[in-house]
Amino acid sequence: MQSAAGSANEAHPLFGGALSAVIPHSATDISELREIPDNQEVFAHAHTDQSLIVELVEYQGQVADQDAARYHFEDIAGSNKALEPGAFEVTSVVALPKSELSLSECSTAWMLTGTQSVSKFNEEARNSVTIHLGLFRLPQFSTDVLITFNDPQSISPESSSACAVGTHQQPWMVKDFQRLVQTLTLHNPGLFG
């Protein structure tokens, strides 16, 4: 299977080249393996249970910029069936300076770190996953761009992911996620319709 990323600093085309970003080493493009929604680009680490998702979602105008990352994090928690008390927690939300970003079209950008207790494929077993979320707000395109880095911290022995434990061959680090966030670049605004 081909790695989706070329050299460590080479931008990878996303959404047919409308966007690009530096994708970390050992990334597999999941769309080569299964159907992925048109509004997502999904990458999985070849040897760990880590994943990265770049997603275009509807701009939530009713949500203040400083609350938007938490809004999307809670939306992900709902999708992960991790909304019960204690199943998710936000540990930090910080504004990203636009001077450090390639996506100059965003009105604001945010990074959130939190944890969720997540089961895979509707299994009973729950895994503790640190979620790093990058959010770019693009009100002029009625779009929020989310970049989600799922970094499992503890895997239940009953989980289908248990086989990936112990094979940590150069797992992705937060700096790999930050490089992806910082290098996200818009090439074709027609992507937003």
Automatic annotation (TrEMBL):
<dbReference type="GO" id="GO:0017080">
    <property type="term" value="F:sodium channel regulator activity"/>
</dbReference>
<protein>
    <recommendedName>
        <fullName>Ran guanine nucleotide release factor</fullName>
    </recommendedName>
</protein>
<comment type="similarity">
    <text>Belongs to the MOG1 family.</text>
</comment>
<keyword id="KW-0653">Protein transport</keyword>
<dbReference type="GO" id="GO:0003254">
    <property type="term" value="P:regulation of membrane depolarization"/>
</dbReference>
<keyword id="KW-0344">Guanine-nucleotide releasing factor</keyword>
<dbReference type="GO" id="GO:0031267">
    <property type="term" value="F:small GTPase binding"/>
</dbReference>
<dbReference type="GO" id="GO:0005085">
    <property type="term" value="F:guanyl-nucleotide exchange factor activity"/>
</dbReference>
<dbReference type="GO" id="GO:0060047">
    <property type="term" value="P:heart contraction"/>
</dbReference>
<dbReference type="InterPro" id="IPR016123">
    <property type="entry name" value="Mog1/PsbP_a/b/a-sand"/>
</dbReference>
<dbReference type="GO" id="GO:0044325">
    <property type="term" value="F:transmembrane transporter binding"/>
</dbReference>
<dbReference type="GO" id="GO:0005634">
    <property type="term" value="C:nucleus"/>
</dbReference>
<dbReference type="GO" id="GO:0006606">
    <property type="term" value="P:protein import into nucleus"/>
</dbReference>
<dbReference type="Pfam" id="PF04603">
    <property type="entry name" value="Mog1"/>
</dbReference>
<keyword id="KW-0813">Transport</keyword>
<dbReference type="InterPro" id="IPR007681">
    <property type="entry name" value="Mog1"/>
</dbReference>
